[in-house]
Amino acid sequence: MKILVINAGSSSCKYQLLEMDTQSLLCSGLVERIGARAGCLTHRTYRDGREEKIVREHPFPTHEESMEEVIALLADPEAGVIKNKNEIAAIGHRVVHGGEKIAEPVLVTRRVKDIIRECFMFSPLHNPANLTGIEVTEKLFPGVPNVAVFDTEFGMGIPEEAYMYALPYSLYEELGIRRYGFHGTSHKYIAHRTAEYLGKAPGELCSVTMHLGNGSSMTCVKNGGCFDTSMGLTPLEGLVMGTRCGSIDPAIVPFVMEKKGLSASEVDALMNKQSGLLGLCGHTDMRDVHSRIEAGDKRADLAFNMLVRSVKKILGSYLVLLEGKTDAVVFTAGIGENDSLLRAAVCEGMEAFGIKLDRTENSARKPGARTISTPDSKIPVLIIPTNEELQIALATKDLLEQSA
Ligand code: AMP
What we know:
This protein is α/β, with parallel strands linked by helices. The protein contains 15 helices and 14 strands.
């Protein structure tokens, strides 16, 4: 069974085609700068352990035209991996926000699309693009089921005292203002993989996942479900991120609006796109932050230390919520999987809390899931590579089989 996974952004579209019988990746790609004068499509095919790359640089006026070119590449007589698009059994879409109405993966219907539309107000950048992705594949793959997998899924399991904000209760009732949580696909995947790695029943796992990438979030997993999560109504809350400020005193918002004469959407853009590591030191990529630190840049040093502190503060609070029963703490995503200096800084001084990092293991570069704590560390520290696309494809396959 072949499943296509689509992650449509406002001017980009990421995709993967997976063979579910072997859980193997057939091809992946990214179309960038859709709608701009100069677009770019990078397509990778994986065959017999080899990777072939095709790059096409020309304008891609719409998502539909981009997808038409992707389909032509997938079914190309020479470079393609399928004979024709009818081989694709279903399409799984990443959708950022499902609000309170949908959490679990669902087959796309008119009602589901209406709900995705209703959630535009919570995710104005992502949900409209995700819906466009769905509408394009509905048109180009008539009769093929589309499944929506929500980023809010895993976080929706948290208890009421974790999802409510201490604002007037009517704001929750009228506007749905609550913590939803994001990166749910990754957090769910990592919780399953962690249980598997530790040889535990998924429903018994108690762990902390640190998804640290360009966007970063953490979850506290209790008995296999999400017990708390760091992102909130939107993906802005929580950790210091590449371009997002994370948690700040909310009174800063009206203060900055007044003093700088900014509108609500301008201050929103400031906090989402011009803050975090970028706002502090001018770089969003941790590799650049490290180069700047080595060059003696004090702001880069500050940015790194602030990110580490924000992770430690949430890690500490989740260890407390788990009341001494933490089975593992897990690093994942671009920074979590690759940045040994950040992992070492986060785990520094945590011995009294049961976390003892093995410096050699932590510094080694090895693929796959692995332990980076010492054998006598009370709480194992793990690196588990995330795979959101595989999780979306698995959810799509499950739903297809259930509805067959
Ligand atoms: P993601 O959003 O999960 O794709 O993560 C992207 C981020 O991972 C990049 O912005 C980098 O900051 C970070 N990253 C990737 N590779 C490395 C590396 N070798 N060392 C440090 N950070 C890395």
